[in-house]
Amino acid sequence: MSSTLDAPIARPAAEQAAAPRTPTRRRYLMCPPRHFAVVYAINPWMDPSRPVDQALAVAQWTALKEAYQRLGHTVEVIEPQAGLPDMVFAANSGTVVDGRVLGARFRAAERAAEADHYRRWFLEHSFRDVVMPTKINEGEGDFAWTGRVLLAGSGFRTDPDAHAEAQEVLGVPVVSLRLVDPRYYHLDTALFVLDDRPGRQEIAYYPEAFSPGSREVLRRLFPDAVLASPEDAACLGLNGVSDGRNVVLPVEATGLARQLADRGYQPVMVDISELRKSGGGPKCCTLELRG
Fold first, then answer.
1. Residues 223, 228, 230, CA angle at the centre, nearest 5°?
2. Is 275 domain-assigned?
3. What is the CATH number of the domain that holds 152?
4. Which member of 31, 73, 163, 284 is catalytic?
5. Where is the composition biased (Low complexity) (predicted)?
6. Most C-beta atoms within 10 A of its C-beta, which of 54, 75, 148, 158?
7. Which is the catalytic residue, given 73, 186, 235, 285?
């Protein structure tokens, strides 16, 4: 399992910004929040005493789905299941690279049943290379494919041993990163990939969410990464989705949006405040189906 590479992944920021940004069409899996609620607390964002407007959550999710479709992306939808209020967070259901699927195994008992519903969806939709994990991993919540390496988070949810399992199942090099701030309990709350094309890999992240050693690894691999402010991290601004040009962000992440626009990206702002009551944002609702 890789922990570092010999050379930086991305080109310098000035060269990146000068090159035209071109989107690539993506295929996503989403789950409508028809059963969304906050009835338990498994992360610091969740407070069952705060009222949840379920109709508003559905409206915000629908607007997110329609934003992807307007950008030319394909959105597949899985049927939500009663009793699984967090099933809306499809990113946690697995990791798909080149058509290979590593399923999820959740740490919290409240979410455990989601894994098999998603497993069946993969098999029913022509994904034949589907492996369910033996170690706890929460899918793209803690795995981020950069196009060259799989960045893998641990510290709160996914087991460190799951990183080696992901490398074996998906056949890609894995770089382990340790999260240290419980507010950023998944990797996708503190980091996301802006561009995954060869020679143009670029990420954005919040350094304070990571251990000192992990920060140094990210600095070496991505010396010109976009670094988010505490304010943008605090609204889950790093829970974004990019197609290489268009970057879908929470509407509150204005500073991050300005940084991305300066580099030639096109921010697409969405309101997903209701789902944030469960610690989710655009990426949490979105699993990318690669290959």
1. 135
2. yes
3. 3.75.10.10
4. 284
5. 7-22
6. 158
7. 186
Whether 235 is catalytic is: no
Task: Count CB atoms within 10 A of the CB of residue 43.
Answer: 17
Overall domain count for the chain: 1
Residue 284 annotated among the catalytic residues of the structure: yes
Give the tens place of pLDDT for each residue, 220-232.
Answer: 999 999 999 999 9
Instruction: Give the burial class of 83: count Cβ atoms within 10 A of its Cβ; 0-12 exposed, 13-18 middle, 19 or more buried.
Output: exposed
Q: Which residues of 274-289 are buried (b: 16+ CB within 10 A; e: fewer)?
A: bbbbbbbbbbbbbbbb
Range of the domain at 222: 13-288
Across-strand partners of 178?
154
Q: Give the helix/strand (H/E) hosting 117.
A: helix 114-124
Identify the residue whose tokens are 């409240």.
Answer: 110
Please indicate, yes or no, whether the overall pTM of this predicted structure exceeds 0.90.
yes
**171: which residues sit within 8 A by CB, 6+ positions away?**
98, 100
Q: Is 144 helix (H, G, I), strand (E, B) or coil?
A: strand
Structure tokens at 44: 């610091």
Residue type, 254: T
Task: Compute how many other C-beta atoms are within 10 angstroms of the C-beta atom of residue 75.
Answer: 17
Are the CB atoms for 127 and 78 separated by under 8 Å? Answer: no
Nearest to 193, CA basis, from 123, 127, 260, 131: 260
